[in-house]
Structure formats: C-alpha cells, structure tokens
Write a sequence for this structure.
C-alpha cells in the first residue's frame, strides 16, 4: 500500500476533517433566540447543556460504521448493537456524565424480522453492560438509499445517547497539568474504527477471506477478530469518578488513535512511554496491508481503548480500581509541558 493507506482504501482523513469544519462553521451560527445553554465548546466528546442551576444533560451521537459490512457478509448481526451502545456511552462518560438512555436509529434495505431480532440482541446486551435504557428509536425502510453486502440485507445503525452531570462535576481536561499520570484501559481490538482500511488491508491487499484463521490470530478467524465487540467502559469510569481523588481528564480512543488525547487540552503534551500490548489483529493488518507503523497509530487504538488522567500519587490506586473491571489497565505515560505534542517512547 502507499504511505497513506487509509486514503487509498477510500477514506481521506483530511477531507473528513474539512467536511466537519464546513458543518461546524454553519451550525455554530445558530441563534436559538435565547442565551446558549451549552457549557462546552465543540470538539469535546459530548455536548453539555445546563437545564437547571445544579443539573446539565450530556448528549452525543455515533454509529457503528463500516464494521456493519463484515456483519452483513457473515450474517453475524448479534453483536453490532453492543458497538453502537459503546461508541455513544464511552463518549458520554468522558465529560463525567452518567449515561441514562440511548435512542437508536436503524435504517434498513428491507425489514427482516430475524435480522432485526439479532440486532436488538446486541443493543440489549450493550444497554445492560452500560446500565442504560433504550426507551425508543426509529426504524426506517430505505431500499433506494441502503444497499447491502449482499443486497437486500443492508442496514445502518446509529444512536444518540443522553446522560446527566452536575455542572460543577464536569470533567473537561482543564485541570490537566505536566507530571500527571496517563492510565490506559485495554481495547478488545479494532472496536468500531478504521474498518475501511482494515478490510482493504486484510481482504483486498492481504488476500484473506473472512473465514480464514491465520496463525497470527491464534485460532480465531478474520471475522471473529473484526466482529469482536467494542468494550464498554462505563461502570469502571463511574467508579473512578466516585473515588476519593480527582480525575483530570478522560478520553475515548477511537478513530485517530492517540490524537484523541488532544481533545482534552491544547496546553499540555502527552508522552506514551509504556503503551499497552498491541492485539494481534493490528499486526496482521499492518503486515498484510503494508501499512506503515505511524499510520497504524494514526488510525487505530492499537490496544488502548480509553484513557484517564490522574495525579501521579493516585495512579496506583486508579490502576487497581480500573484493572478490577478491565484487567491489563496500566500507567502508560505522563503529561508533559510540550503543548499539543503526542510522543511515543
């Protein structure tokens, strides 16, 4: 693959960023006819609106992305609902909010009851893992817009999640300072990001089939590895927020990899000198697709799905607490004074 493997696979990060800027440039000019209730600027993991002096709601929306192509091709639809829940609630908790509910939006090529029941199974599992409700949603039948892999089994799955937080309990990253500890929580694999590149590297460039079981995966098939559900970190992070020490920043490591840390603060840097182990699926993508190491780290989570920032004296306690929920959690680095810089040692 060329150096910019993701662009060659069909996704340009630069074009995507430009598209987001075009949207935000217009949306930020909305005049609701009253003072804004927003407590955070755009670019954080969730939006937060004050609804009462001591109460704010956090909102976010996300989907599963082209991971759904793998689910369609294999007929394995019972876990992608977990991914939809995870991609939303893992963002909500980054601002210190307690997730309470999600509404799902499911667009289908045709309304197959058996397929919908499988999708619902994953949504139920994810909701229970996150401790939230799904009180409603929307099913849209759009045969002119949705095309499956194969047709007519196409669908898209997205959600919008809601949580509550006291305004004075917001976690924004504003108190992050040099010397603080960076704690990493392990991912289960790709989660729900970078699948256009992953499928191109493994299936097109690498010549693998979804039911192949290359030795790098230790007996698992390519489909098994690609459909491994996204980890839901809600219960661990809520327990961390209730601990008797300050949490200075929380980051969900999604598309863009460690660059997500820069969403917490532009005034500090992040040095990762003890990264978590990299799961075999990433090494397989890099090898079969000839994806350069720097691009792998720019696109994928590379084994770290979530990050917490705490004072160095609290790091050991934080690791023990988080590790009880997610074994393998560890201190992976330190906040530096090199503003805007992410360093990997």
């Amino acid at each position: 693959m060329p150096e910019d493997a993701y662009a060659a696979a069909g996704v340009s990060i630069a074009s995507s960023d430009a598209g987001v800027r075009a949207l935000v440039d217009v949306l930020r000019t909305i005049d609701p006819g009253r003072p804004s209730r927003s407590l955070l600027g755009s670019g954080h993991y969730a939006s937060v609106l004050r609804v009462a002096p001591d109460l704010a709601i956090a909102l976010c929306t996300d989907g599963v992305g082209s991971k759904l192509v793998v689910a369609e091709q294999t007929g394995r639809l019972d876990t992608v609902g977990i991914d939809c829940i995870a991609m939303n609630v893992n963002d909500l908790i980054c601002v210190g909010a307690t997730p309470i509910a999600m509404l799902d939006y499911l667009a289908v090529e045709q309304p197959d009851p058996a397929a919908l029941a499988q999708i619902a199974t994953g949504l139920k599992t994810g909701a229970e893992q996150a401790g939230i409700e799904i009180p409603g949603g929307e099913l849209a039948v759009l045969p002119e817009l949705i095309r499956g892999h194969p047709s007519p089994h196409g669908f898209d799955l997205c959600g919008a999640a809601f949580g509550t937080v006291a305004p004075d309990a917001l976690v924004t990253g504003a108190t992050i300072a040099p010397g603080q500890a960076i704690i990493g929580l392990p991912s289960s694999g790709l989660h729900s990001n970078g699948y256009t590149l992953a499928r191109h590297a493994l299936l097109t460039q690498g010549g693998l089939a979804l039911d192949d079981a290359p030795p790098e995966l230790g007996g698992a098939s390519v489909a098994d590895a690609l459909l491994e559900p996204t980890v839901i970190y809600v219960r661990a992070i809520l327990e961390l927020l209730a601990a008797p020490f300050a949490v200075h920043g929380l980051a969900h490591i999604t598309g863009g990899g460690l660059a997500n840390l820069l969403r917490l603060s532009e005034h500090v840097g992040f040095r990762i000198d003890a990264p978590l182990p990299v799961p075999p699926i990433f090494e397989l993508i890099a090898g079969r697709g000839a994806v350069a190491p720097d691009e792998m780290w720019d696109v994928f989570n590379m084994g770290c799905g979530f990050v917490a920032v705490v004072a160095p004296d609290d790091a050991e306690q934080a690791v023990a607490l988080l590790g009880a929920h997610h074994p393998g959690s560890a201190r992976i680095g330190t906040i530096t004074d090199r503003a805007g810089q992410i360093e990997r040692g």
The chain has a mean pLDDT of 95.
